[in-house]
Design goal:
The protein has a 4-stranded antiparallel β-sheet with strand order 2-3-5-6. Helix content is 30%, strand content 23%. It has 4 helices and 6 strands, in the order H-H-H-H-E-E-E-E-E-E. Keywords: Signal. This is Lipoprotein.
């Protein structure tokens, strides 16, 4: 998802990395590369209503979304401080109760790359649950809207921004949670559409 930037590479490469890192939590997906800047588009249409949920399904969605908000807080704190508990046992790491599989690996990779490059984040994005796309016994898919206009990625020493200019700061993200054998809903996949707005 994010290329390594080694010493000697151009400043443009560092700016490109920072731009990708700024949306890592909500946009970890290797399927479709994200554009550097969003094209001009008309305002996004309101999302269609999701499926009608039973009381049990709604409780599952509520539990999973609460877990996502906790995951987001842990990830943001680690990105802002550069501190994360890299326990040898991955199940004892701070994000494990709320993330799993490839998604957790990508989030941790992002934190590791930021630490390696001497970058930290400032500010907090606003994340709003827009709609539930689908619910099954073992999977929940939701669409959220992210507004990260107040977020920046800066060099830890100089405190100068390394984010690419002209990025879309309000965009939809599709997230999927899976039910694990221990009964916890963990977020396992994310796809960001930076070319769209919400």
């Amino acid at each position: 998802m994010n290329p390594y930037i080694r010493r000697g590479r151009s400043a443009a490469a560092a700016v490109a990395l920072a731009a990708l890192l700024s949306s890592a939590l909500l946009g970890c997906s290797s399927e479709v590369p994200e554009p550097q800047a969003a094209p001009s588009r008309p305002p996004a249409a309101k999302p269609s209503p999701g499926p009608s949920l039973s009381a049990d399904e709604q409780r599952s969605v509520d539990a999973a979304w609460t877990g996502f908000l906790k995951l987001n807080s842990i990830y943001l704190a680690a990105g802002q401080t550069g501190k994360y508990d890299w326990n040898a046992d991955a199940t004892r790491r701070p994000m494990y109760p709320y993330a799993g599989g490839r998604y957790m690996a990508l989030l941790e990779r992002d934190l590791d790359l930021m630490a390696e490059q001497g970058l930290v984040r400032t500010g907090r994005p606003t994340v709003t649950l827009r709609r539930v796309v689908s619910v099954s016994v073992t999977s929940i898919v939701v669409e959220a809207c992210v507004d990260d206009a107040a977020v920046d990625t800066v060099d830890r020493k100089t405190r100068k921004s390394v984010a690419a200019p002209g990025q879309n700061h309000r965009y939809p993200v599709t997230l999927r949670a899976g039910l694990y054998p221990d009964g916890a809903w963990r977020w396992v996949d994310s796809h960001t559409d930076r070319a769209a707005s919400c």
